[in-house]
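Fold this complex.
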Amino acid sequence: NSSKVSLDSETMATKEDVQDPRIPKIASSIRVIPDFPKPGIMFQDITTLLLDTEAFKDTIDIFVERYKGKGISVVAGVEARGFIFGPPIALAIGAKFVPMRKPKKLPGKVISEEYSLEYGTDKIEMHVGAVEPGERAIIIDDLIATGGTLAAAIRLLERVGVTIAECACVIELPVLKGREKLGETPLFILVTSDAA
Amino acid sequence: SLPKSLNKRESERKTADFFIFRSSLTMSGNKQEEDPRINGIKTKIRVVPDFPKKGIMFQDITTVLLDPKAFKDTIDLFVERYRDKNISVVAGIEARGFLFGPPIALAIGAKFVPLRKPKKLPGETIFEEYELEYGNDRLEMHVGAVEAGDRALVVDDLIATGGTLCAAINLLERVGAEVVECACVIELPELKGRQRLKGKPLCMLVEYR
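Structure:
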């Protein structure tokens, strides 16, 4: 799509290519909790990353280096762990931060997008007027699993005329094929985990 | 008619209080010494009437986050205050404390510790109960996140009755941390939350009456 300013192909390299030397420490700072929230799930706990000041700083720095100066005016973060990584990135690149929340949390007028869960559906909401048509956004969450939430966030932003340059997560669980739900939107991640 | 020695202590205490009060003026919303950035932040806060229920004037900080300068100024004001205070932990209260706590933590080189509603944290937790208007709720923290001797800041977007902040202070003190201060963007002083902080000081940027 020639109208987009594209991130150059080297920075789009996946984990298997040249790995940033900061990544192993970031990966090892993530704690895996078995059987949470239910038996069989190996939960990727980023709270231990947040306790490691160097790992947390490096995580933010990697994202900032990737997105600074690329015309990104919106960082959208998915509640609640996206709120931890999104704002520091937004502040460093001079973009607005837009929280995307579960229903009934945002006080003003909202638009919603529904998405499927394993059983049933859920909704993600954004304030009307937070973003404007033509803006370029990145969407941040701590982890991509099935991709349902991120796909809903993409749809929500696209409905109001925003272009999503990329989705960015600390962790991907590739076994769950979340990337496929994102359509044409690229995904950038720091760490992959086979635990799912 | 008090003995001279008591008078001297009393006047020293009053002098100390005076200096503490004056140094907090720049952050207290007192107009005489207000940092020039505060007005810019205040004008960005959106008040939403009757949310979450009739009669409540909700202080919406999402509009501050939409203004990169106002958001940066908010963080800078707190960072300037805390960077030389040897703070090792910034504890942020879910979910809006997560918006302000991490940028402060990163800038001052402290760990960030999320304090969450029940069942969100995956590892072993401790909890503290607090009162709502109707019923109770709980705040949880991961075991091991904070160590005895840690110097902690508690961050939230707003202090109303102070119940959640009090629960946060209790959690941190129970594991042996020292709570240095609570930091909020907004205070609703009429709800007297400041008095529920177990004697800990409160730093806020904007008052709403």
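The interface with chain A takes residues 46, 48, 51-52, 58, 60, 62, 65-68, 71-72, 75, 94-96, 98-100, 102-103, 105-106, 109-114, 116, 119-123, 142, 145 of chain B (CB under 8 Å).
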